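Q: What residues go here?
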């Protein structure tokens, strides 16, 4: 299987304000073509041995895999208040050719 060139990045944020700041920074730097903000999302997790439940905002960002590690992740971490923010990428294995071309044209 060939490596995916396009990805969807999932990022959780503690508020709409922070989610919008992250989305705008990624768009301004041309690191993503599009970001969807989905809220509220109930997150249940274990952090430092303690079970937690929080209301968060989920960002779904569409971009190129080549931008993930060197540019997208550092940009998110610079703006994110969490000690360890969720920043994970899922490959886009298939997509409409014109949509994938738009991602390419929209990102740096």
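A:
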């Amino acid at each position: 299987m060939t490596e995916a060139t396009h990805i969807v990045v999932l990022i959780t944020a503690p508020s709409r304000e922070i989610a919008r700041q992250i989305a705008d920074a990624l768009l301004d730097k041309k690191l993503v073509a599009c970001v969807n903000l989905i809220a509220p999302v109930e997150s249940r997790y274990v952090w430092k041995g303690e079970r937690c439940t929080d209301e968060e905002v989920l960002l779904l960002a569409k971009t190129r895999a080549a931008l993930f590690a060197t540019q997208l992740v550092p940009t998110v971490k610079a703006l994110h208040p969490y000690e360890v923010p969720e920043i994970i990428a899922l490959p886009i294995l298939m997509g409409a050719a014109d949509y994938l071309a738009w991602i390419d044209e929209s990102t740096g």
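A: Context that may help when evaluating the design: The chain has one domain: 6-106. The first helix runs from residue 16 to 28.
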